[in-house]
What does this fold into?
Amino acid sequence: MRAALQRATRRPRLTAAALLGAAGVILLGQGAWIQAKAVLAQILLERAFAETLATGRDAKPWSWADTWPVARVEAPRLGRSAIVLHGSSGQALAFGPGHVEGTPQPGKPGAAVFSAHRDTHFSFLRELRAGDELRVTRRDGVTLRFRVTDGSVVRFDASGLDPLAGLPRLVLSTCWPFDAKVPGPLRYLLEADLIADSAGTRAGLLIHEDGNGPEPALKT
Amino acid sequence: MHTVPEASGKDRPSRFAFPVQAPRAAAGPHLTLAILLAIAAILALASRTLAAGGEALVRPGEMRAGSLLLRSTEPGAFVEVPRVGTDVDITVSGPTARARITQVFRNPTEGWVEAIYVYPLPEGGAVDSLRIVIGDRVVIGDIKERKEARAIYAEAKAAGRKTTLLEQERPNLFTNSVANIGPGETVLVQIEYQEPVRQSADGFSLRVPLVVAPRYNPKPVLQTVDFAPGGQGWGTAADPVPDRERIEPPVLDPRSSAPTNPVTIAIRLQAGFALGEVRSHHHEVRIEERGADARLIGLAEGPVPADRDFELTWKPAAANAPAVGLFRERVGDADYVLAFVTPPALQQTEDRRPREIVFVIDNSGSMGGTSIVQAKASLLYALGRLKPVDRFNVIRFDHTMDVLFPDAVPADAEHVSRAKVFVDALKAQGGTEMLPSMKAALTDPRESDASFLRQVVFLTDGAIGNEQQLLDTIAAMRGRSRVFMVGIGSAPNSFLMTRAAEIGRGAFTHIGSADQVEERMRKLFEKLESPAVTNLSARFSEGEADVTPAVLPDVYRGEPLVIAARLGSARGYLAINGRIGDRPWTVTLPLTAAAEGKGLSKLWARRKIADAEVARTLRNTTLEEADKAILTLALDHRLVTRLTSLVAVDKTPSRPEGARLTRADLPLNLPAGWEFDKVFGGEKPREPREPRLDRASASRIQVASAPEATVASPALRPSATTATPGVALPATATDSELRMMLGLLLCAASLALAVVGRRRAAA
It folds into this structure.
């Protein structure tokens, strides 16, 4: 009688264990899939970006993609790089950093903002320090060098970033704090000043060539 | 806990009820953790605040007095350096004044810093010298084109050399950046400028601005649109305040971070004539006689806080001010001449035509306190002066606007009393959207009715950042109206007022305190009622004279006509012709009688630059032509303008970072001629203040888990910044780690369950 009872209680326990296990595996798989997608997509994106550099035309990484690569951002000291996508929709960010809409091209006056997930493409942001170099290769083949100056934490809806003002600079944005496990309203901003482009031109002269830089707007 | 829509909707498996709910349940412990972190952060912040002497984050535009700002880890925000003192030393020689402003600052932090220094200067001032002592180095500024100066500065900054950059933000607002100041080092900044002495019917005056009023910068709702050539019809909308980040950022805590800035003032007055009354309007002074025509003026009770402008007036001993002044200076191969001529007051030529006056009163928040009281008193006085034949209207504005009457009404008793009730009820609040009210005031429904003179009297503190937009509006819409600016309060934006009055062909009056209301408004009304001296022209008999102002303005009663000119050599005579009412008026001045003046060439250049700016506003020249003219003048005369900056780079290599310097290691080497005793006089380094309670409020908690390895420790920007939200940043967190952790947990739980079951079974 005791054995019968045990058998009876053991079966539901086993069922529960199996259910829990299955749910666990599914969750694990989903989490891993997000990571894998981020890594795999970058491989396809590298290919598409190489094509863009070669042909000068935007190339979609896969036929049904709704975005395309626009730049490559590298942190040479950390040996990390990522292909930046056009736009910063959720879909795009699953595959790579996004060039936030309404911010200028890197190297143009103002703040070019790249945004990516803290736990995938921009996990390396926490290791960047003031003085570190960042490299951006634009789709026109120009490579720009930036130097990290500042880090700050802002609310997503109160970044205070005026993208069209100031000298050419790069802002990398990701979620803050890095170790949090749930989404939150805070963003970490890493600012970097333009040092030079591939032609070795100094930052100050770049604006001059542009002609419509930010500072002539100072009116008296 | 704040939840943000997840980045990728399709990553979320809505088919499974269990996994979706699991993260919610898991958020509980995270919330607790976050609260703990927040408390830790408050404590950390409070202790840091104590250590740093109560420094608060500020932005350049909200600085009320000249001050040095240290760039903080938070972009766009700065930590103010405790100020030690300011010394103002001005020598007045006849028609000009040479001012030397020296400020002493100390870097109280443990790190190497870049400092930003914001300073108000008089709008007519020609800034030509910048010297800075950082630690034991003296660096002297060199004039360069603004972009070039910035590039030089950025390069030296990156290379770790000490460097400094002086830039003009507005003709009366400058910023000075100093890079690579070592820990504990003391910094001395010295600026010199030349300015003309103001002259009016009853004497001479000098104003030393000590405060920059925070400015209201309209949000870009009313946009101007720039069409690029060849843009095929596509244009970009321009922000009315393109440099708002430099001059007006979100306000964090202006009152409690407003420092007391002790100022000492010394004025060596050499009037060039026997002096009568010498008076300071807003400060207690002691005046020492140094002969009949010279005085030494100092503050009566030692240093004062820099919370108001300093104003000094002086009169000649003789009953009337001299009607004519003529000065010259030889610089290089040219002579520079400065002439003041006050036309005679002729009573009989009074214009009997009735007037139509539109009064505009600013009741925005910046006018709060005594300013609105003065403005109301001034306007009530003006309403009382109207004659029944006149017509008038009243407009009040903050960020909204009310026009009292649909159209100008006769100034009869009923209308005037209605207007007085309206004015009396005004309260100072809201923003400063000046443009719509100026447009309304300049709208002239009876443009061709010559039986009325049309005048606009505008009472404001001018605390706005979109000056150029307002000037453009006046230039475009002035028609026959004349614009009279009445500057209210202790620190009005006198650049805007002067320029607006110049473009509006009126006059500018400054009312700095309540007891000046009646006197100055009476004088303004004399100007409004008296005819101007019109059709003025100036001619030099010999040599190619380059005269400024290029087009001589009309001159109101009691005001002098001021002319500056550059000549090959000052010989022959200067003839000035004009009309007072319907009578011709001529005066001839022999140039050989001119007395020696100082710094006249700089004043001439400054005035030429203002001419170029006005011509551009009036669309008489293109932007490119104006810029070219300004650049040439500025570089020739070493002046800071919107296109040129002073930049200095320390040639000696800077100390290696890490080699900490304390103040004791660095006895200051003052250059010869610098007098800092007064500046330092008895002033001890400031004691750390108590941390303010609001610093520790939850809205600006620093997140304590800041990774040590990253760039310093970032501070959370306060929620006050929602006023200028900036770029919206996308959500950039996936729940992949959360899912994987939960997945692992569930797997572990299932295993545990299975194992426990088996053990029991085995037992």
Notes: Residues 134 and 199 of chain A are 16 Å apart (CA to CA). The first helix of chain A runs from residue 2 to 55. The longest strand of chain A covers residues 143-155. Strands of chain A lie at 69-75, 80-86, 98-99, 111-115, 133-138, 143-155, 169-175, 186-197.
